[in-house]
Write a structure and sequence with these properties.
CATH architecture of the largest domain: 2-Layer Sandwich
Strand content: 25-35%
Number of helices: 16
Structural class: alpha+beta
Largest sheet: 9 strands, antiparallel
CATH class of the largest domain: Alpha Beta
CATH topology of the largest domain: Alpha-Beta Plaits
CATH superfamily of the largest domain: Nucleotide cyclase, GGDEF domain
Helix content: 25-40%
Number of strands: 31
Length: 773
């Protein structure tokens, strides 16, 4: 059985780490705990005070509401009681002067005084069983008082006489109205009073005179001779509404008068409670006026009976009372509804003020705790930085000792740069990769003298970069300025180098320390993904100065651009074959005949599957279509006779004729132009340049195959090698074989890439095509 074992970082003392955590916990935890405790205490005090204040306010509000309800009930009772008392006096006077008598001075004077001095009385009515009728009416239009007298005496014609008076009560005119057909015996107040022994309260109806809605208080009486009379007093709803609207109940409270069925008798806004049914005006039910609190209160009282209650509507609490009216109306009650905040709102305001003050206190406590935490963490950070600086200084001293032990560091006869420089730079800064580069060839080439990969502990050298392919990056290096770029892919100065060298290896940040000699930049020290580069800046300058001393002596190894391939040692043909003659590879040229093309230049463009497919694994047609259209256009410009799309690969070839000396150059031009166009297409679609190009020159076999239609197909060594070049190239770059290099080296900018082994050919050199010379 295998047991998993934890990986322990021996560079950090676990006791020191634990002590640091405890110290940080004390620095941060104690102030935060104090602030939290303060907040908890303040919240607890606020909640307790709020509950106590609210309970006291509600007790006080109940007492206030009780007194307010009693006062309103008394005022309502007095309001209607005036009408009933006036009705009682009018009854005794009408008994002495019936409405049909010619002499009506006493009752008329009394009725006129009642209408004039009791403001909410609109009219005074007296009627008997014969249809005789007298009404004293307050005429709001003229500001005076009118008397309507109807005589229906036996043996005489019916007469209707109007007596007009001014505001002082003086008669200003009389008028007969023979068209008036009013009969009091058909009115609700008359018929209702005849059926009641006491005072009759009518429902809301529209008055015949004035057409205003209101109610009538009426009472039946009988004379000594047995003749029945009805005396009534008209009260308009407008006057009732003014009375209820004038009642001050909190800020927005209101009082309603309703009957036992919930129908409204009087409302502060009476127009909202009126409706017309069968041509007559009546009032709505309390559920129909759009007053949700009043409807909710009525529903409560309908179930639980009169009294006081608290109802909640839409999250708002309301206080409500329902008090039956004694000796007034028919099962009438006064209902009062007002928001609870009208009486206890001051408690919430006081609580909000207290909460605001508490928040200020909490804010001050938070600020003080923050300052304390900040000061403590700053102290710890300074101590940690001092420890780190001390450790860095110790590591730098060790590195300097190591460099000092390198006796060949300044020896110009020693051809190789000591590897201790890059190793020391990677060790001190924690860099993923450290490398030293020199400017050569009139500052147009950057040559890598040594590169150290800290993850694999391997060194490499000999890589070259040309100004033509990295113009902006070369400008930054030649200027001799330091660079610290956290994201090399997004900085215009380093975008090119990130795409070329860093992206394939997953690099992100880049730090460059220039090497100067005699006031001029001679190279640079590169650090990729180095978190400690800032703290080791002085050491890096010293290291760069040390490496700069070898600038004059250090020279790149000869590249194929400086020496002809023919001057290299010839390897055995069995291990290596660059000849286009397929006979040397085991093919019989006579058998192949016209299907053999000995010197074909082949270009393969490979689009990575991750770029060619979407999230669901489906190829986006617009991307592939744009790429193919672009390559077709370029192939037409360069006179490339063979172009085919195979999966995500585009294969182009030229040189099918023996007398075509420009085929390799045209293929190279197609590759360079295609690389630029594809870069634009991928950038426009927001994709990384996930494409690679490969070129080879050599023998290929081609022929027309298939039936209806027959297709020309190309295969063989050149196409296979070009495909290998594309597969192993860096993203967005053009990699060519050694055979292609032999034909392109005089007119194109090339740099060595490395070597690879291919069956039947052996080890071969590869190059990167950067551009035209």
């Amino acid at each position: 059985m295998l047991e998993s074992q934890a990986i322990i970082d021996t560079s950090v003392d676990p006791l020191v780490r634990a002590a640091g955590r405890r110290r940080t916990l004390r620095r941060v935890g104690i102030p935060i705990a104090a602030v939290i405790l303060t907040i908890v205490v303040i919240v607890a005090i606020a909640l307790q005070a709020n509950e106590a204040n609210r309970a006291g306010a509600l007790t006080l509000s109940n007492d206030v509401l009780k007194e307010t309800t009693a006062r309103i009930d008394e005022e309502v009772t007095n309001y209607f009681g005036t009408a009933t008392r006036t009705l009682a006096v009018g009854e005794s006077m009408a008994d002495r002067e019936p409405p049909g008598e010619p002499r009506r001075t006493l009752i008329e004077k009394y009725a006129l005084s009642a209408v004039k001095y009791v403001g909410h009385i609109t009219a005074f009515d007296v009627a008997n069983a014969n249809g005789d009728y007298m009404m004293i009416w307050q005429n709001d239009a003229s500001g005076g008082y009118d008397t309507k007298l109807i005589q229906n005496g036996a043996g005489s014609a019916r007469s209707v006489l109007w007596v007009r008076r001014n505001a002082a009560g003086d008669v200003i005119g009389q008028q007969n109205d023979p068209s008036d057909t009013y009969d009091p015996r058909t009115r609700p107040w008359y018929t209702g009073a005849l059926k009641t022994n006491g005072v009759y309260w009518s429902d809301v109806y529209k008055f015949h005179t004035g057409n205003a809605p209101g109610i009538t208080v009426a009472k039946r009486y009988e004379t000594a001779e047995g003749q029945e009379f009805v005396v009534g007093i008209d009260l308009t709803l407008e006057s009732l509404s003014r009375f209820l609207a004038d009642l001050k109940i909190g800020k927005t409270g209101r009082a309603l008068i309703i009957d036992g069925s919930g129908k409204i008798i009087a409302h502060p806004q009476m127009q909202s409670a009126l409706e017309t049914v069968n041509g007559d005006v009546t009032t709505k039910h309390v559920d129909e006026i759009g007053d949700a609190p009043a409807a909710g209160a009525y529903d409560h009282f309908r179930v639980n009976g009169p009294g006081r209650a608290t109802v909640t509507v839409d999250g708002v609490r309301y206080l409500a009372t329902l008090t039956p009216l004694k000796d007034v109306g028919h099962n009438w009650s006064t209902m009062i509804v007002l928001p609870e905040d009208d009486l206890v709102g001051f408690v919430g305001k006081a609580n909000r003020t207290s909460l605001l003050i508490s928040l200020v206190i909490v804010g001050l406590a938070v600020v003080m705790a923050g300052l304390l935490i900040r000061q403590g963490l700053r102290t710890d950070r300074v101590a940690r930085l001092l420890r780190q600086r001390s450790a860095a200084m110790a590591r730098q001293r060790e590195a300097l000792d190591l460099i000092a032990d390198e006796v060949d560091l300044y020896d110009p006869l020693h051809p190789e740069l000591p590897q201790s420089l890059t190793e020391a730079a990677a060790e001190i800064t924690g860099a993923r990769r450290a490398s030293i580069w020199y400017l050569q060839s009139r500052r147009s080439v950057l040559h890598c003298a040594d590169s150290f990969d800290s993850e694999t502990a391997r060194h490499s050298a000999g890589f070259e970069l040309h100004r033509d392919e990295l113009p902006r990056f070369f400008d930054s290096v030649v200027e001799g300025g330091a660079l610290d770029v956290p994201d090399a892919a997004s900085d215009p100065r380093t975008t090119e180098i990130h795409r070329l060298l860093m992206a394939p290896l997953g690099g992100r940040s880049l730090s460059i320390t220039p090497m100067r000699r005699r006031g001029h930049a001679v190279g640079a020290v590169w650090l990729e993904d180095a978190p400690g580069a800032g703290a080791a800046r002085d050491f890096l300058r010293l290291l760069a100065g040390t490496a700069a001393q070898r600038a004059a002596e250090t020279a790149p190894e000869p590249t194929p651009e400086a020496s002809d391939l023919d001057e290299r040692p010839i390897e055995p043909e069995i291990a290596r074959c660059l000849s286009p003659d397929l006979t040397l590879s085991g093919f019989d040229r006579q058998q192949l005949g016209d299907n053999l093309y000995p010197q074909v230049a082949v270009l393969v463009i490979r689009i990575d599957e991750s770029a060619a497919t979407g999230n669901g694994g489906v190829s986006p047609p617009e991307l592939i279509d744009s790429v193919v259209c672009a390559m077709q256009e370029i192939a037409a410009e360069q006179d490339i006779p063979y172009l085919k799309l195979v999966g995500y690969d585009i294969v182009g070839a030229a040189g099918f004729s023996p007398d075509d000396p420009t085929s390799a150059a045209r293929i190279a031009n197609t590759a360079i132009a295609g690389r630029e166009r594809l870069m634009e297409i991928f950038e426009a679609t927001g994709r990384a340049p996930d494409f690679r190009l490969g070129i080879d020159c050599g023998a290929a076999i081609g022929g027309v195959i298939g039936a209806g239609p027959r297709l020309f197909n190309l295969w063989g060594s050149a196409t296979q090698t070009a495909r290998v070049m594309a597969e192993t190239a860096l993203p967005g770059s053009i990699q060519i074989s050694e055979a292609a290099y032999g034909q392109l080296r005089r007119n194109f900018l090339l740099r060595p890439r490395g070597t690879f082994f291919q069956a039947g050919i052996g080890t071969a050199q590869t190059f990167v095509l950067a551009g035209r010379l």
